[in-house]
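Budget justification note: compute hours in this period were largely spent on complex prediction jobs such as the one shown. Inputs:
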Amino acid sequence: MKRLVLLIMLLAIYLASSALAASPDEIIQKSQTAFFYPGKDFKARVMMKLISPNGQERVRELTMLRLNTGEAGGEQKYFMYFFQPAEVKNMTFMVVKFPERDDDRWLFVPAINMVRRIAMQDKQASFVGSDFTYEDVSGRDLGDDSHELVKEESLNGKECFVIKSTPKADSANYGYKLSWIDKTTFLPMKEEYYDRSGATIRVFTADEVQEVKGFPTITKRTMKNLQSGHRTEVYYSSQDYNIGLDDSLFSERFLKQPPKKWIE
Amino acid sequence: MRKNSLVLLSVNHPKTVVFLSMLLAMVFLTQFPKMTTDTNPKNMLPATSAVRVGNDAVEKTFGLYEDMIVLGISNDQGVVNPATLTKIKRITEAILQIHGVAARDVASFTTIDNVTMEDGALRVAPLMTMVPEEEAGLAKLRQALAENPLLINRIISQDGKTTAIYIPLEKGANGKEVADRIREIISHEAGADSFQSPLVSDGERYSIAGDPVARDTFGAEMFKLMGMFAPMAGMIMFAVAFFMFRSLFLSMAIMAPAMIIIICSMGLIIGMGYPVHIMSSMSPVFLMAIATDSIHIFNEFYFRFHERGDRKAAILDTMQAIGKPLIYTDITTAAGFASLMLANIIPVKVFGFGVAFGTMLLLLLSFTLVPALLTFIRVENIERITANEDIRTSKSACFLMRLSRIGGFWPRATLLVGGFLVAFAIVGISRIHVNNNMVEWFKAGSEIRMADRVLNQALGGTSLAYVVASAEEDDFMKNPDAMRYLEGLQRHLETLPMVGKTFSVVDYVKRINLVLHDNDPKFDVVPETKEMIGQYLFLFAMSAKPSDLDNVVDYPFRQANIWVQMKTWDAQAMRQVIVAMDEYSKAHPMSIELKTAGIAYFNLVWNNEVLGDMVKGFLAALVMVFVILVINFRSVKWALVSYVPLLFTILLLYGVIGFMGKDFDMPISVLSCLSLGMAVDFAIHFVGRFRLRRAEAKGSEPLADSLDWTAARPGKGIMRNALLFAASFSVMLFAPLTPYITVGAFIVSMMMLSALMTIVYLPAIITLMQGWLLQGE
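Corresponding output:
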């Protein structure tokens, strides 16, 4: 009898605690939704600064359009129009992101007036030469990692969950990742990537968060590669949600001639 | 005289002198635990030197690595087969995990980016992600390798039998640890117990090359030389000395000053904070050899004791007679080494300073410790041993006398023969070829040489230089004209026989142009417009590793970097690249400035620097030695006469080097300087003692008799000195690194030759020119 009471008490404590603190998988899922899927669609002017260890800079400036065509965590379409560097003006790039399978990517090369499909390779390849990978830009499949809540702590005055995500099998070129996820916005405030020997290789920081149409949005972020000393800073401007993007925009025709109202 | 009072003081208080000498050695010995070594040739020049500053800037601009290990894997059946490819994949994965390896920039089948068009899609991805098991996949990989000029001669040989993995190291990584880990990985893969390049297993042959490996091997061999060869040289010297003097005590008395000066001069260098470098690692053997100078004291002491029978008087007499030649031989030797301090190369300076210091200390010990030690000799012992030290009965003395009579009796014929020899030597010298090849510092059968040969035969070359093109405005390198200029320069450099491969940003642009146009060969050219080039590069950068582009262009596209791989480490090859580069620049005027950088360029610069330094030092030593001779003899005439054996020896040695076709390289040029100071020693003893003899005889002795006496008595000291010297240096002939062998062979020949020249040619000259030389006697 005593034993049964104890068992019930333990069960009650377990249920209570798991109801209070979300499971690591739920935290990560909420974070993905807040980070990569807010709104029906999204638009921003993006300025990327690629900064070499000795301070030399390369600039990428583009308009980024995103349309969610599925649920949070599901299919998405990205459209990018480049302003800078100067000689790539008018270049456009389209990505159709599918969970569970390789993305489709299309690129328009204006100098030879040609649209080319770009074969998907490593999702961890560098995004336009920056320290961000394609995965950093559009999110990583949830099922690729196992997640674990390591601790809860405050970071720059914000209460955060610290989640350790370890890639299953060899699905990543790093050992594991620690994410500091804001308990209120569920945006990642910091991410640290470690190699298999436990050394930090890359660090992501959310440097500025603004609320746009009720969606907390990271408007300035930095990714630093600790091994090469290289870093990339990204600034958003004129960001907006639910602007009424149409699926027809994501076509070869508009890749060649993107409508001005969307890209300016 | 002061030096005599010093000797007297030492003879009167021998125990104190011995104690103080030991104490001195102990003090310097305390510095030894601080010893560090430096085997990086980069440190031959100071960090502020133009070439190092330039190289650092180029490395920084293009994100290049200072150190790279190259692992070669060959299979006679071709490396593109599932078994070998699986091994390459596994080995690469293991290497990427090594701490200190710049994993993001390792170039191997599974990491190097390839640009292809597949099923209508442009693909920038690692050459091989999965090992193809089917023939179709293998054929596709073979074709990918064959059609991409970016891969041929870099990651795969023309014949498909050799591949290489390029492993850059992070700054400050320990090259030896990384190389050892790679060896472990390979021996594990091959199922071998240990790794010894080339390792052959299952049809694959593995070899490891690269600068860090060479440096570590060098460091290990250097320690071996200091730890094994210096003591061995000491033991041989001890044995030879015992054979000459038949006294254990005397042999030890010869060794004692040698040991003390080695400890003190090494201790001084270490204590001053200099790491032990290849040059200073040789100083123990040099100092040991120089210390054989004290043999003249023992030699003369034997004769004097035999004549006088009184120990203390014999010591004082000996020092009186040979004190002056001793001082001047040590000073000339020290001057020869000190001339190295004019060098710009730090390790050469340190070496010169250390040995010069040791030599001067030896001089001090010759007047203190050596006489003090002689007082401990038991009288009955020397009486027995010195019984046959008589120039009339001693066999070796007779031999020397006969030798000197060749010159004395047939002076004209002797000099004529000498004239022919000199003419012959000059022809040889005119054939001397200035070059330096650091890989050839290792023996032909060594791991490094083998690995280097394998990789150079199969691939583009292990010796790497960069040609950096700089323009004044941003984005200049995206101009089609600039691209075509770079392409032309590459083709021009590739006409040189030693240049195995070049690659630049142009190769990427052309590759994308071709691939975007479905491999239509007419697009295998530089695109027509700046927009195209800019967009192609952007396209490439969208998926390639950032370093692919960073390695070949700077951020604002003002500078482009052409990689030039050479199949030899000869400094000569780099010189030709620079000449070709300048030719091209003159023939194709454009607002682009060309400069060179990289390890091959660095080697060329410091070689030139060494040679320049040595010529400077050689001339300085030539003048210094002459001035010292004039001061010593207080006569220009006699200074000139003593100069003859020295010049003769050096001319003959370099003549032989010229005929042998051996390159005039760094070790040889260093030797030229200090050989001056050592080769003149015997002439100083000979002339000094001869003139003393003439002065003592006051004209009562015929010239021929004086020459006989000089050849037999100080001559015996000279012979003993030369033999002892040569014996201890001959150890270096068995050293594992060629510079040590060169030094050993050179010094042994030099000492033997200058001894012979002194004993044969000085009598000839003195006989022939007696009217001029002996006037006023």
